[in-house]
Design a protein that fits this description.
By secondary structure, the chain is an alpha/beta fold. The protein has twelve helices and seven strands. Strand 2, helix 8 and strand 3 form a beta-alpha-beta unit.
Length: 320
Amino acid sequence: MAQALSSFFICAKCLSYNSSAHLPLFVIDRIRQNHDGYTRQYDRYNTRFILPRFILRFISAPRTRESSPLPVIFRIFDSMTDHNADDQDGNRKPLFYDPAERRIRSFVTRAGRVSTAQGRALEELGPRFMVPYEKAPLDTTQAFGRNAPTIFEIGFGMGETTATIAAGMPEKNFIGVEVHTPGVGSLLKLIGERQLENVRIIQHDAYEVLVNMIAPASLSGIHVFFPDPWHKARHNKRRLIQPPMVELLSSRLAPGGYLHCATDWQEYAEQMLEVLGNETALQNTADGYAPRPDYRPVTKFENRGLKLGHGVWDLVFTKK
């Protein structure tokens, strides 16, 4: 971080010294090297190092003098940001949320590697099983070709659990919402392998999908399995299960419908229990935490944690 900041101040000094000239190449190289180095370091933790936004805004702000457009620095810093970068074909990357919606989100969009099989599934099965996001109520009868109870899942990861549950409940419709493309491709691949007809995927922010596409009192169930615990105290505000979100979830459930949450983070489980218990429209099906329902399979990561003595907590609440 210190090296990146030093690059920034060198850059600022050069701009203030001679605003009519392009940035010296040695400064551009140093910024690029620092960024690449931090990217390699933090990739081990599935995180990208991106310079603070106030620095990016300062450097990439338009110059007041027309003789100093600084096209090189624009290209460098545009490629450092997730939402302004183009893909390999030069097309603008899609946003899986509305940038005009100023609220704290429970996810971070990260670039992930899409395997050949996942890419093939996206190309061949995506048009059939993926539902585009739009600010209009979703007609589930038209989307699935039938009228059946609908289960809504938030953040299905790589889709193994979703595919297993959907295969065991062919009489129900399943809508899976996920923002990460490799996970979407993985679930599509499983849909093709297991010949599932009762799954549809929406690649978008689940909150916006619930608000704009899911009608009130229309869902038979909602699954929220192992959401990001955001375990650092300063990140707790990003947790998905918060009072406003729970109120929205309960409004989309039909009477008698259920909300099933699961986590392997004890402190988050305690927060879930408190928040869900305070929602007047919901009723706990157990005295505290619920036993794992038979329909929810044990994932390989969960099984590994259980063997190491780690806990897993399920919570099942129903709509009054």
